[in-house]
Design goal:
The chain is elongated. It contains six helices and no strands. 82% of the residues lie in helices and 0% in strands. By secondary structure, the chain is mostly helical.
């Protein structure tokens, strides 16, 4: 379970970073566009954690529900830190 969760974490970070790196400058240069893009990508990629929990707990509803409820948190954190992920920092 820990290995699967770590793998999903790496996947979320890598996919979000690649999408932000390949996004056009008109999109990545504006925080109000870049943030939702990062949030949507990270939140969608984080849904893989639900699959890990389903396999690890043999379909236990509690852990899967908790994982699904934490998905928006991942999206919000990625949106807030999208400038750091893109490499822009606080200079905007």
């Amino acid at each position: 379970m820990v290995g699967g969760s770590l793998g999903v974490g790496v996947l979320v970070g890598a996919v979000t970073g690649v999408v932000l790196a390949l996004s056009p400058e008109w999109l990545a240069g504006r925080a109000w566009l870049r943030g939702p893009l990062a949030g949507i990508v990270a939140g969608t990629a984080c849904l893989g954690e639900t699959v890990v929990m389903a396999v690890a707990t043999d379909g236990g509803y509690g852990p899967m529900l908790l994982t699904l409820l934490s998905t928006p948190v991942v999206g919000v954190v990625a949106a807030v830190h999208s400038g750091d992920i893109r490499g822009r920092g606080q200079a905007e």
